[in-house]
Fold this protein.
Amino acid sequence: MYGLDSGLSYCRGWLSGKGASWVRGRSFQDLSLRTALSSATPGALCALVSVQLSTHLKQNRILLIGGGLSGGGGERHFNMLAKWLYGGSADVLVVARPGLPCRRNPLFPLRPGAVIAFGKAIEGCLRGRYDVIFGFGRFASFVAFGLHRVAGRKAALVLMDISVFLRAHQADARWYKAIPLWGCRAAYGGADILLANSLSGAKQLATLTHGRVPASRVPNLVDPGWIASASRASEAPAANETPYVLALGRLVPSKRLDAAIRGFSRMAAQVPHRFLIAGDGPERQRVEALGASLGLQGRVVFVGWIVEPLPLLARAAALVHSSTLEGFPNAVLEAMCLHVPVISGDWGEDAHSMSSSGALILVDSANADSIKAAILQILQNPAFCDEMVTRARREVATHLIPEAIRDYDSIIEAVLTRAADN
């Protein structure tokens, strides 16, 4: 790739002279290309063939590294990047943190041979195969940083983080919790550009590197066709036709499900709905006990972890996403795609922006009465609910495939151009 400019300069010179007549004399099966070549001026002919050469030479020059291809929101995002980034040409390396499953079977099918072994990635880096090494997620970014060093720092390094780990550290400031931050500063400080899927995330990355590395916010990736298809699947537990509101996600303290259950308990007598909680985690026993102590047996239902929750989400009267520590949760966008109203905790500036536009209801995740009022507003006011769904449809548009992938491709192009100039 680094010789691309000089190679294209030679081709442009040749095409502007005797090469133009040679190209026009060739036989092309593609009628539209043959017509374009037969009528093109030398300058236009040069531009046309340069584009074809650029496209050809850039194939398989990106190493994309992430933690899995068939799990929750983050792995789904990584899978969509692997499928569509730069025309789906990237080599894909799956690396999971110790103790976590390494899911290499893609939810969205990739080109044959796209997923490579670690040894092949190292070989490609040593041979200078890659122009860009792209790490998606914190652990994958550490791996990408190491492989960037293996490549002799000749490739551009793009790192993306979808968490808000600085806010998590501020919430738990014990000294040993700061150790991972030292690694983040070293790895992220060596990148050419940092990416985040939220405004808050981009600001945290800029803060972490003291502004020395540019940080940019990119959209989440949502495939509306796939969501519509998956939501019709039959994998979700039976809802017995009883209406329900739904909470999704790992059961951890930051999800604030305790306040959501208390809020539901204060309005349960006013509606027939149940409160379904899909997910598992260390908080499950505690929140189950809370529901029982509030007399909500049969009204608050823990369905556990399910492989694909979209069918359950599609039938929900509302999504209660009371989390306070998120980058940009895909569950919110998926609910919006399925025309399900969203009640959201304060997880960042994007939540505030969507609340201001009327696309969701923003609540105080620690305040049960705030959550209660939001649920009742949705369940008892159909006109308000319909208006919110309409506004949400406009908000989610910027995250839809294939348009949203262009932002990522543009960043790759900018990084490659800057690297070639240097």
